[in-house]
Fold this sequence. Notes:
33% of the residues lie in helices and 19% in strands. It has 368 residues and is α/β, with parallel strands linked by helices. α5 packs parallel to α6, α7 packs parallel to α9 (242-254) and α10 packs parallel to α11 (310-322). The two termini are 36 Å apart. The chain binds S-adenosyl-L-homocysteine. Residues 118, 120-121, 164, 168, 199-201, 221, 264, 266, 295, 297-298, 341-342 line the site of S-adenosyl-L-homocysteine.
Amino acid sequence: xxxxxxxxLGLDRKGLEAFFxxxxxxxxxxxxxxxxxxxxxxxxxxxxxxxxKGLREQLKEVAELRAPxxxxxxxxxxxxxxxxxxxxxxxxxxxxLIPEGERGTLCVSxxxxxxxxxxxxxxxxxxxxxxxxxxxxxxxxxAAYQYYGATHRxxxxxxxxxMMGMGEPLLNFDNVVAAMNIMTDDDCYGLSKRRxxxxxxxxxxxxxxxxEESDVSLAVSLHAPNDELRNVLVPLNxxxxxxxxxxxxxxxxxxxxxxxxxxEYVMLDGVNDKPEHARQMIQLLKGIPSKINLIPxxxxxxxxxxxxxxxxxxxxxxxxxxxGLTTVTRRxxxxxxxxxxxxxxxxxxxxxKRNLPKAGDALQELGG
Length: 368
Ligand code: SAH
């Protein structure tokens, strides 16, 4: 293993084709190798028996297949699975599989920790360490398949992916988009683009870029229907207030006729769960094809909020529904193993970096 070797696990079709062309090989090698890596899950170039021995030897010189290592597996009484994966740096990330009937949804992390520090989220309290590489993002999907000893063909264990684990995916734009390309590529995992969802706290310039570069489904963590409250719950709102966020949502829907946007709304007792909030939301989302996902707050040590009562959530939902908004309440899953929304913490080394990657700095790289 050497740092100079290219990790082929992290290259999407475009990247892998360029890799082979640079080697003086035909671009179709990309398809062959992608199938070996992602569909058959091989870790050794020698297993790729439709690749000539000479080329395999060459590959061993310049490339490697390196995946994050599974260090802990926990099963919830409700069937939810949480895996802890160790990265090269000693950091750990968490991935969660939520089976539901015919469907299996994998909740994938995009960063070690998170820089956004939303006041109700455990990941934010951990601070931020670094972006995940494409290989580390895709490695979560691959690890879940391998855990069951399955390739993508023999078992449809994972039908959906949500980029709703640790981190803000749009602050790790290039790696996340490449990983989603691999997830949806027919020679890799072949997931439907509609079944891969990226969730953002509202990084407006990156949402605009995503609309141009990808057609995955979009979820937006709204959590408050006015700037005053949202500034407190989602500090990123101070940089990108609701007016800009809603304009970016409209743009996402318009470009290429995108489907509905999912708006996530965590239900915090006495904070954002009053009837007036529901009414403001109806105004705010007017004209945006949307569905609302109400998430009962999941507590974690030191959290300062309480979950809204079932009755309050029902009432809130009824007001939204009467205002014409499609609304579902997300069932809490996996909370007995700290795998529920907002409870993922992994192991973040060197948390002192928390204040370094201010959202604004990361955005400069995006041209934002
Ligand atoms: N940074 C992205 C991806 C994380 S998604 C985003 O903000 O969308 C994780 C989802 O769980 C988000 O909607 C987040 O707001 C929500 N969440 C975070 N903490 C939570 C908690 N304690 N209880 C319930 N939902 C929470």
